[in-house]
Amino acid sequence: MITRSTPSPLPLLSAGLVTIVAGASMSLQGRANGVLGLVLGHAVYAALVSFATGLLLLVAVLICSPRSRTATMLLIRLVRGRVLPWWMLLGGLSGALVVIAQATTVPLMGVAMFTMAFVSGQVVGGMGVDATRLPPGGRQRPSAFRILGVLVVIAALVLSSGERLDLGVPLWAPLLPFVSGMLTAVQQAFNDRIRLATGSAVVATTVNFVSGLILPIAITGALLAAGVTWDGFPTAVGQWWTLLGGTLGVVFIALTARTVRRLGVLRLSLFSLFGNLAGALALDVWLPMSSSLVSGTTAAGAALVLVGIGLTLIPGGGSGRSPSAGGPLRP
How far, in Å, CA of 155 to CA of 94, rounded? Predict the structure, then answer.
């Protein structure tokens, strides 16, 4: 009789921990971009600065890394040869929407509420993306436990965000981060395709920042032409950290580009969700803004998120990957 060894859970747990850290960096990015938008005079200006600073950091890495330069040339050949669809280079557009949503809505409803809306979109988008051929690992048919876990997470988000809406936050405010969260699930699948094709997380991250910079540049030009003033850069000593949004975005994309294949888009979204929630709660408790609100309901929502993550990790008969996993996508 052949005995099959049980796969070690350590790689999955390690990838989950890394993704939680990445999610926590997103909550700090949300606070930084939200404050920067107020300082500069418009949310789009904050998105432009965030992407520009992140791209400068990545260009420096590319210049210093022969391996990354080689991977960049490989990516160009793959796109020209239509081995990799050109539209997979546009994932950064959703990242630009995330930064605009941060800078627009965090001052209105705080980091925690922004996070609730954003990650609920991630969960919905992650479930949808995992059911397609976009992830390199192929389709993942949702099991009953995964569906139940997603429902628990969504219930937690509704519970935590309800009291903020009762205090007068407009309905459009949660909608913007929700939509950007859904698109982030697609972005994560694109990132992993590019990383696997080139063998470089740096190149995958750089592609995101290059394409993501297009939208803020275009909108900034329109705003300046319309007379919307740019109020200048942060000058106070205590505001320097608001310029770190782009760097934190690099950290998030680089880390999740390495963990999405191990976790899948849905599980990556859930681990990122918890890290994002934990970071958001810490910020709203220790460094509150006027819009910050942390209550027992918010803490209960974070606990329910953990329950939801646990449910999605329970093996189920219907959660296997498609036999065509990792097959090429054609335009």
Answer: 25
pLDDT tens-digit map of 174-230: 889 889 988 988 888 898 899 889 998 889 889 989 999 999 999 999 999 999 999
CB atoms within 10 A of CB 328: 12
Please tell me the least confidently modeled range out of 31-40, 139-148, 257-266, 313-322.
313-322
pLDDT tens figures, 236-252: 767 888 899 889 888 88
The angle formed by the CA atoms of residues 35, 50 and 276, to the nearest 5 degrees, is 65
Query: How does DSSP classify residue 314?
Result: S
DSSP secondary structure, 47-95, as one string:
HHHHHHHHHHHHHHHHHH-HHHHHHHHHHHHHHHTTSS-GGGGGTHHHH
pTM here is: 0.77
Total number of residues shown for the chain: 331
Residue 123 C-alpha from the chain's centroid: 11
> Which of 247, 277, 253, 300 lies closest to 24, judged by CA?
277
Q: How far apart are CA 93 and CA 187, in angstroms?
A: 9
Measured CA angle at 228 (ends 227, 232), to 5 deg: 120
The end-to-end CA distance of the chain, in Å, is 47
